[in-house]
Amino acid sequence: MMSDTKIKTMEEFAAVSGLSRPTVSKYFFDANSVRPKTRARIEDALERYDYRPNIYAMNQNRRLTRTLGIVVPFLADPFFAEIARNIERLCIDAGFRPIVFSSHGEPELEADNLKSLLAMKPSGALLAPLGRLSDRSALSNFSAEVPSILFDSNMDGIGEGFVGLDNSQSIGAIVRYLCDSGQPPSFFEGRMAPNPNVQSKLAAYTQTMKQLGHEPHIVYADGEGWDFESIGYNAGIRALQARDFPTNTILCGNDRLAVGFLAAAYEEGLRVGRGDGCALRVAGHDDHPFSRFTCPPLTTVSQDFNAIAAKSVELLTELIDHDSQRQTERTTTLFDGTLVIRASA
Amino acid sequence: MMSDTKIKTMEEFAAVSGLSRPTVSKYFFDANSVRPKTRARIEDALERYDYRPNIYAMNQNRRLTRTLGIVVPFLADPFFAEIARNIERLCIDAGFRPIVFSSHGEPELEADNLKSLLAMKPSGALLAPLGRLSDRSALSNFSAEVPSILFDSNMDGIGEGFVGLDNSQSIGAIVRYLCDSGQPPSFFEGRMAPNPNVQSKLAAYTQTMKQLGHEPHIVYADGEGWDFESIGYNAGIRALQARDFPTNTILCGNDRLAVGFLAAAYEEGLRVGRGDGCALRVAGHDDHPFSRFTCPPLTTVSQDFNAIAAKSVELLTELIDHDSQRQTERTTTLFDGTLVIRASA
DNA sequence: CCTGAAATTTTACGCGCGTAAAATTTTAAT
DNA sequence: ATTAAAATTTTACGCGCGTAAAATTTCAGG
To answer: What pTM did the predictor assign?
Structure first.
């Protein structure tokens, strides 16, 4: 039933729907802000003539653009791809227009992304900073102007809140499991890991090991960047050949590192698993989407993507709705990880 | 040396740089369109006062927004994440502002993305359609208004060109390799696979097998959606238990399916590889970023991400530069795949 | 039918910039 | 120094919409 006359401006569209432009304008900002009967008339006209307001003219003068920025450090990492997907969906459902930026692991690009985002006058932002490598002042400047919630990777004093995993709990849980079910684990982690969670993971590992009366043993993997599988593989080969591990059990700092390490163990002819014929137990952390399908399937700690995404979006929308009180205290929300026992350890 | 006075409009910025607003406006559209001396003065002022033009006011009246849309079917798939990353980089280098959309495997979202993109008046678009499930008219309407290049997945008559892998060549190469080095392969593919490449892959498999004097044998994996590892795993378990494969060699339609199949073989206690103690040879297709790290590492056919990305961007920028001749013939560019022999087959 | 509140319309202005055309200046050459 | 071409400035207008304030209409309830 689409009419053929092209509607180009809101003025014209208001005319064919028999309303005034300001009313239509109000509708497009919030469909519930007009009378139901008026809304029906507009949506009727909307079906007959597919008109869309010019987004540039719209956002030029709006106080609230209702766009939300999502910045992740590395979208080619399936973890961030998944969480970005969840967050995107939730933002749309909450009536916002999400825009995803990936920093591709580069601090300069992260700063660029924040500037581009700032230029879009977003209503708010959900940020997972690069961490150690981040340009702190870029993040600080940004979050001073835009209501921001950090997720996955925390940075002191930036943004109005942080939502993430309780590394202390999650590492504690898997270390305890590994100790209970066999030999105590060494901890295998990237030396130059960009992610700030690394420090708290290391601390949690050390603390739990001591609590259980074991000597902590950390093996660092050299290598820069976000190519964790490669780093885990190369350092794994080296460490296995050098017999760097005092026990048969290795806890990797994250699943991608573990995937690389599993490949190294395979290459070295070492069978991984809990069974009798196995030489090595390997565990990961994060429960990446593909960890179910490694050989053997990876024992790990899962983070609840949905919970983290939902809480982040909830905090942000709340913040946006009463942004009067932007001086409230910075909130930190930590979720527990869940032990996922598969065949690898 | 940043001055503290806030410059908000181009008028003000033109004043402090001692130029007129139209000249500055010209600079921001194309930095090379002004005299070097003038350009230097602007960039000088740019360092002293960090001014950025209001993107909304800018794009409202510009003929060319210099934004490029990139639409991929599923960004959580590492293949698309990688290629999107490459394309993004190339677009930036070519002086455009890329914006990435993911359809998350849903045709409705794909159509939505195209509408959102259209509202941004992009200078051009690089599209990887969902394929079989795509809303054809949505794509058709879009590409009628925006210069578009398709990549990875082709759709007849849509866009000004297509860039992708020559499935016929790549499948031919790996089938030939598998036949030469052992028993001829069965083909393992999703029955409801959304990707349009599936048909040409099947055809290439059948044809090559017949050429070599072998009987083609296709095993379909049931399952909807983009969770290929799960589909490969579940269908793999079933097919292995039912002894559906006449030979010891299986060629999977893509690497993610192969990853799931490898997990199934592991679960069934079947050793995969070329060696004597191995029960099964498994190969994939696409060379996903993680295929190097499966156990055993996956034999597959690699596509040159960089070449595909570069050619796509090159075609599009050419198209944009002389868009007068938009009536030119639709071009198809196919790259050869390269056999990547690893331990799995 | 009356009344007050809520929704809508009218009116008017401005946002920050693009762009066209004419006037002026600068540049590079003769 | 002269001159034509190129770059820049001036001037002027418009883009499509947001938004505020005042005037008017619609609505629900009595």
So the answer is: 0.90
